[in-house]
Amino acid sequence: ATLCFQAFLQMCNLPIRVICRANAEYMSPSGKLPFIHVGNQVVSELGPIVQFVKAKGHSLSDGLDEVQKAEMKAYMELVNNMLLTAELYLQWCDDVTVEEITHPRYGSPYPWPLNRILSYQKQWEVRRKMKAIGWAGKTLEQVLEDVDQCCHALSQRLGTQPYFFNKHPTELDALVFGHLFTILTTQLITDELSEKVKNYSNLTAFCRRIEQQYFEGQERDSAAIAARSSKRSLLR
Amino acid sequence: MAAPMELSCWGGDWGLPSLHPQSLTVMAYAKFSGAPLTVNTINKSWRTPKGDLPVLVSEDTVISQPAKILNFLRKQKYNADYDLSAKQGADTLAYVALLEEKLLPALLHTFWIEAENYCSVTKPWFASRIAFPLSLYLPGKMSREALNRILLTKGGPPLYSLTEVEAQIYRDAKECLNLLSKRLGTSQFFFGDTPTTLDAFVFGFLAPIYKVCFPRVHLQEHLKQLPNLCRFCDDILTCYFRLTVSGHSPAGQDTADANLQKLTQLVNKESNLIEKMDDNLRKSPQHPPRKLTTLKLAAGGEESSPMSRLSP
């Protein structure tokens, strides 16, 4: 999710200095993810951030007509509904993954026994949510099938275009990139999830393209940003 | 030949075949794709709903969620999406996700959580269709499940109280309705002239909001301001469910049907009588049969056409 809105901010080509500062402050450890801290305002979640950025005068979806905007919102919901829930399911409801990866990772900043307590609490919370929306009864295969269907739909929509809505990237591209990149690069017990995504070559090409275009540039800048943020913290 | 398929679901009222959005979706899809489905609505019998409705039973397979039921119907070659391109299929998936995320919470809230609506309409209606004593327990359970679902999916920070969550979900629902209206535009169905899965889902979610008479109706009022969506619902109801548009005339049509049935029976009786008399007269040759045959012809001419139309 972090990656989604980083990509989005990069795509906005925002007056870079201003927003990158927000990014750098975000890199410091904080409570909720993702959120940005701009001046004295704190905005969290991709939706409000998009609106906030729009209010400041930058929007990626201005070039779309009404029907396309409706489609974009629908696809964003699909991604949220399917991919996000599937990621949560894999992290918290699949026992093997939970034991070996999630519990240690989630509880790592805290000493024992707090790490175990907090991660069990989070797991219980996620399982409750899954039950409420009807995913508790699903097996891993069914979840993977749903992810496959979702990727198939995204792949069909993308086709051979560079971005989902032709020539210019939109919020949808940022969201999809964030999720797919996370799936492709996170190490899990099994590679089934990333295999599902890799089946669709245009989606992997899409991720690679966005990475090259928007994030390789950032690596050069990040050294400059780190220098700038340390200067700012000194000034405070 | 496909095995006979039976669908158990909640019944309907106010001009709808069912009040339950998922049941309505499945019924609409069955009509669009021409699947021969026997619909059993839940009534006060002891075959109580176990788990979620709608439930499709075909031979030995029991399938319960709408998406799975639709998949099953497609495998049985009842496919309403045959003419769709791959991209349109992808769009269908996306729009269904939009409906479930944005519209369903508000729908659940209007039916099950809004206190006035729940106490005066939803609870008595559902309780009247479930056998005692389950009718005391089940509506409450459904209401709690709805609340749970809304709070768990929508109730995280920065929304901390139920009223804030409610405001947010109604905002989302209105936005969703606007988006659907823009997407539908002026065409008859979402993908051209034939209805598809997406039309079934949209109809299933919109029709209860549109038709059911609740005391607190701001979502319905918003929907009524989008005439193309209202027209969409009405079209499907009249074309595929042969129900009239306004809420009270199904009752009128029922009485008309009953009258028609009575008339048919009367006519049949009379024609039987006339035939018998005719036979008797033919056997006794002294009476001229001409008058009666003309009478029969006249009677037959008037009545044969309704009879041929009405006889099953």
UniProtKB/TrEMBL annotation, chain A:
Keywords noted in UniProt: Acetylation, Membrane, Mitochondrion, Mitochondrion outer membrane, Protein transport, Transport
GO cellular component, one term: SAM complex
One BP term from GO: protein transport
Superkingdom field: Eukaryota
Protein name: Metaxin-2
Function, in words: Involved in transport of proteins into the mitochondrion.
Gene this chain is encoded by: Mtx2
Domain Metaxin glutathione S-transferase residue range list: 148-210
Family per record: Belongs to the metaxin family.
Record-linked SUPFAM superfamilies: GST C-terminal domain-like
Record Gene3D superfamilies: 1.20.1050.10
Location(s), subcellular: Mitochondrion outer membrane
Matching Pfam families: GST_C_6, Tom37
Assembly and oligomerization: Interacts with MTX1/metaxin-1. Associates with the mitochondrial contact site and cristae organizing system (MICOS) complex, composed of at least MICOS10/MIC10, CHCHD3/MIC19, CHCHD6/MIC25, APOOL/MIC27, IMMT/MIC60, APOO/MIC23/MIC26 and QIL1/MIC13. This complex was also known under the names MINOS or MitOS complex. The MICOS complex associates with mitochondrial outer membrane proteins SAMM50, MTX1 and MTX2 (together described as components of the mitochondrial outer membrane sorting assembly machinery (SAM) complex) and DNAJC11, mitochondrial inner membrane protein TMEM11 and with HSPA9.
Domain Mitochondrial outer membrane transport complex Sam37/metaxin N-terminal: from-to ranges: 5-122
UniProtKB/TrEMBL annotation, chain B:
Stretch list, region Disordered: 279-312
Keyword Membrane: yes
Similarity annotation: Belongs to the metaxin family.
GO-annotated cellular components: SAM complex
GO biological process: mitochondrion organization; protein transport
Protein name: MTX3 protein
Keyword S-adenosyl-L-methionine in record: no
Record gene name: Mtx3
Domain Metaxin glutathione S-transferase: 173-236
Keywords: Membrane, Mitochondrion, Mitochondrion outer membrane, Protein transport, Transport
Domain Mitochondrial outer membrane transport complex Sam37/metaxin N-terminal: residue ranges: 23-142
InterPro entries associated with the record: Glutathione-S-Trfase_C_sf (IPR036282), Glutathione_S-Trfase (IPR040079), Metaxin1/3 (IPR017410), Metaxin_GST (IPR033468), Mito_Protein_Transport_Metaxin (IPR050931), Sam37/metaxin_N (IPR019564)
Subcellular location: Mitochondrion outer membrane
